[in-house]
Specification:
By secondary structure, the protein is of the alpha+beta class. The protein folds into two domains: 3-74, Orthogonal Bundle (Arc Repressor Mutant, subunit A), CATH 1.10.10; 92-165, Winged helix-like DNA-binding domain superfamily/Winged helix DNA-binding domain (Arc Repressor Mutant, subunit A, Orthogonal Bundle). Helix content is 45%, strand content 15%. The protein is built from eight helices and six strands. It has helices at 3-20, 27-34, 38-51, 75-82, 92-104, 109-116, 121-129, 152-157; strands at residues 25-26, 57-62, 65-70, 107-108, 133-138, 146-150. The protein has a three-stranded antiparallel β-sheet. The chain starts with a helix and ends in a 28-residue tail after the last helix.
Length: 185
């Protein structure tokens, strides 16, 4: 068996498992099932993701988990078939909050509110109900508040394969990319 045959066979296993999985699957789980290393699985996932770029399916990756989803450009057809009404748009506050979480994740509610300058409890709750954000852990600071991050549903909603595919933020004069104000020059 050639190395290419081995990769194709591993892609077959990974694709089959992702196809029947109801939720994201950890790379470690795929490695255990296939009897391979996490690195080999990651290589197979990358190869499969590349193969799907012009097809009706995509492979999304977040951290150490992967999931098979439909291509974002196929959304109107899938929604029509399923009878889903996706015309409920996100409010301006929800889009703003979601953007902050997407670019700053993981982030606490208090940090989010400090950036927005308003209470985010209702908006955060609405985003959680839609499955776009979730609690991803606890901060190590006093009180150990929850920290929030985006979900696979977020990636699917915006047609991204992974969070790193977000477009870069535009440069703003007087503000560095880390979010700290620069000293006037």
């Amino acid at each position: 068996m050639t190395p290419e045959d081995g990769l194709n066979r591993l892609m077959l296993a990974v694709e089959s498992i992702l196809f029947v999985a109801d939720e994201p699957v950890e790379i470690a789980t795929l490695a255990r099932i296939a009897g391979r290393t996490a690195g080999e699985i990651a290589e197979a996932v990358e190869a499969a993701a590349g193969a799907y770029q012009t097809r009706g399916l995509r492979i999304q990756r977040t951290g150490d988990a992967v999931q098979m989803v439909t291509a974002p450009e196929a959304a109107p057809y899938v929604q029509e078939f399923l009878g889903v009404d996706e015309h409920q748009r996100l409010s301006h506050a929800a889009r703003e909050t979601l953007a902050i979480i997407a670019y700053k994740q993981p982030i606490t509610r208090s940090a989010l509110e400090a950036i927005r300058g308003v209470d985010c409890d209702h908006t955060l709750s609405a985003l959680r109900m839609r499955g776009l954000v979730e609690e991803v852990g606890r901060a190590t600071t006093s009180g150990r508040p929850y920290v929030y991050g985006t979900t696979f549903r977020f990636l699917e909603h915006f047609g991204l394969e992974k969070a790193e595919d977000l477009p870069p933020l535009p440069a703003v004069e007087g503000v560095d990319p880390a979010g700290d104000e620069e000293e006037p020059g």
